[in-house]
Write a structure and sequence with these properties.
The structure is a single chain. Strands 5, 6, 7, 8, 9, 12, 13, 14 and 15 form a 9-stranded mixed β-sheet that branches. The protein has a 4-stranded antiparallel β-sheet with strand order 1-4-2-3. Strands 10-11 form a two-stranded antiparallel ribbon. It is an alpha+beta fold. Helix 1 packs across helix 2. A hairpin with a 6-residue loop joins strand 14 and strand 15. It folds into 3 domains: 65 residues, Structural Genomics Hypothetical 15.5 Kd Protein In mrcA-pckA Intergenic Region, Chain A, CATH 3.10.290; 93 residues, Pseudouridine synthase (2-Layer Sandwich), CATH 3.30.2350; 148 residues, Pseudouridine synthase, CATH 3.30.2350.10. 21% of the residues lie in helices and 29% in strands. The two termini are 38 Å apart. The longest helix is centred in the middle third of the chain and has 12 residues.
């Protein structure tokens, strides 16, 4: 993502501008900005004269005055509360544990300005929600991909957010996922390592990269084999990289079923051996990945909490 930077302008007042109001002079010199916008910038202290902030739009400039204008990067609108049903597993004054359904985006972003988990949490928790995660992501300690279902944890105050974020950072939490993947993993359990970074051929994708990237380690264990065409595996993360499970499973040729970004589609040989299963799998409108287990130390009581939920219905139906 390209980071936006503020725009800066430097203007010297010519003789013809002598005695003109500063807002009028700037509007004539900067045609792309309205006089109203420039007036606001002056009142906000974004215009300086000889290094001193101007706050009076009616100030009269003199010939030779040096004016510097900085237009800050526009801030995205703050998310608002929206009534969206939440499946809550646990809640107290410090935190909330809930089951995120597939298709629900965690926080507002380009393309998804509202109807997100953050909007639902603001409506549910009100002003108590922690803002330490940023104004656009209040309370969010960790994320799940839009189409990944399962357990999520959110903080309701800054104290809890700080302590929970530290547990995510040092990987002292228990987190486990169930993934339905193509083929039967062999050996039945193992570890997948390999740095994960941006795919050089497609910046929208992540990939196991030969150099650079960030260290990533995923442990997997076979839970159930479906013939020789698919298997249910438990995955545990030693690190938390973007799309980690999906990238690592694809790297060993066992992509997550329904993953259109990292999967290579249904192989013709599997279609012949398991036509009914493949037909049902093709109708799954998301990748078959579910965060079923979450354990952590409560930031205030010091007690270890552990939550486990059943496999999502749409994935279970494929079994």
């Amino acid at each position: 993502m390209v980071e936006q930077v503020s725009q800066k302008y430097k203007l010297i007042v010519p003789e013809s501008g002598e005695g003109t109001r500063v807002d009028k002079f700037l509007s004539s010199a900067l045609a792309e900005l309205s006089r109203t916008r420039l007036k606001s910038l002056i009142e906000e202290g974004q215009v300086t004269l000889g290094g001193v902030k101007l706050t009076n739009p009616s100030h009269r400039v003199k010939s030779g005055d040096e004016l510097n204008i900085e237009i800050p990067v526009p801030r995205p609108p703050l998310p608002k509360g929206q009534e969206i049903a939440l499946n809550i597993e646990f809640e107290d004054d410090d935190l909330i544990v809930l089951e995120k359904p597939p298709g629900l985006v965690v926080h507002p972003a380009p393309g998804n300005p509202d109807r997100t988990l953050v909007n639902a949490l603001i409506a549910h928790c009100g002003s108590s929600l922690s803002g330490i995660g940023g104004e656009a992501r209040p309370g969010i300690v960790h994320r799940l991909d839009k189409d990944t279902s399962g357990l999520m944890l959110a903080a309701k105050n800054d104290y809890s957010h700080h302590h929970l974020a530290a547990q995510f950072a040092d990987h002292t939490l228990d987190r486990a996922y169930l993934a339905l993947v193509w083929g039967v993993v062999s050996p039945n359990q193992g570890k997948i390592s390999g740095n994960i970074g941006r795919n050089p051929g497609n910046r929208k994708k992540m990939a196991v990269v030969p150099y650079g990237g960030k260290t990533a380690l995923t442990s997997y264990k076979l839970q159930k084999a479906l013939g020789d065409w698919a298997s249910l595996v438990e995955c545990r993360l030693a690190t938390g990289r973007t799309h980690q499970i999906r990238v690592h499973m694809a790297s060993i040729s066992h992509s997550v079923i329904g993953d259109n970004l990292y999967g290579s589609g249904i192989k013709s040989a599997i279609k012949k051996r398991a036509p009914e299963f493949c037909e049902r799998a093709a109708k799954l409108d998301r990748h078959a990945l579910h965060a079923y287990l979450l354990g952590f130390i409560h930031p205030r009581t010091g007690k270890r909490l552990r939550f486990e939920i059943k496999l999502a219905k749409d994935i279970k139906a494929l079994l």
